[in-house]
Amino acid sequence: MSVTADSTSEALPGYRRLALILTEEIQAGQYGENTPLPTDTEMMAKYGLGRQTVRRAFQELVADGLVYRVRGRGTFPISRPNSGRTVRSTGSIEALEEWSGTEMEVISPLELRRDLDLAQRLELDGPVVARLTVRRWVDDEPFAVTEIILPPDVGSQLVSEDKIPSGRAKGTIVAHVSAMAGPVASAEETVTAILVSEETATVLHTGASRPALRVERVYRNADGQPLEISSTVHASERYEHRLSIHRAVQRGS
Q1: What CATH code is assigned to 86-243?
Q2: Comparing 63 with 150, which gets the higher pLDDT?
Q3: φ/ψ bin of 36: left (φ > 0), alpha (ψ from -120 to 50), beta (otherwise)
C-alpha cells in the first residue's frame, strides 16, 4: 500500500506525505499520551516505504514538536497545554506551501494595480502588479492575514484556471504559483514588530494597537526570479512560530 495524499500534497516527497498523515492522526487524538505511534517496520509494511523515508518522516514530526522518541519504547505524541495558540514550524519550502491544518479565505479579490516599487522588487518590465488578500483560519478562529503580490500574468493565470477559492479552502496561493510559474526554490524572510491597525484588528478579531509580528517573504524560482511577495500579520495571542535550524553538512570531512 503506497502513501496516499490529497490533491494539494500528491507531488510532495514520500516522507512529507507520511508526516502529514501522521500529523493529522496525532491531532485527531488517535495516539494517546501512553500510546506509541506505529514502529518504523510497521510503517514500512503499511505504506510500502523504505526505512530511510519512514525515519525522515519521524524526524519531521520531532522537529515540528509533535512527538518525542524513547529508545526501546517507541515514538509518543507530545502532550501540550491548551494555550489557544496555533504553532507553525517551518524548515522547508514544502512546509510553507502546505500550511497544513489551516484554511485560507480570500477577503480581497485579485486586482491589478500600478505600483512601481513592488514591480521593481518583482523585477518586472512594467509597473503593474497583481494583488489579493487572504485570511487564514484554524479551529474557526482567524489568526493571520496576508497581502500577496504577484506578477500580473501569474495573477491572470490564477483567475483563468480558477485557482482562487471562494469561501474557505485548504492550501496556499504560493503552492498554486509554484505549480504554474515555479517551482519555488527559495524564500527570503523579514520579520518586523508592528502595532495592529484597526482594519487588520477587525479582520483578525483582535484588538487594535496590539503588538504583532509582520512576516514578509519573497519567493524565488531556481533562477532567482521573484515569483511572489507576501506580507503576513499574525494575531499574536493565537499564533506561535517555531523555526528548526540545523548545522550545515561539512563536505569532504
Answers
A1: 3.40.1410.10
A2: 150
A3: beta
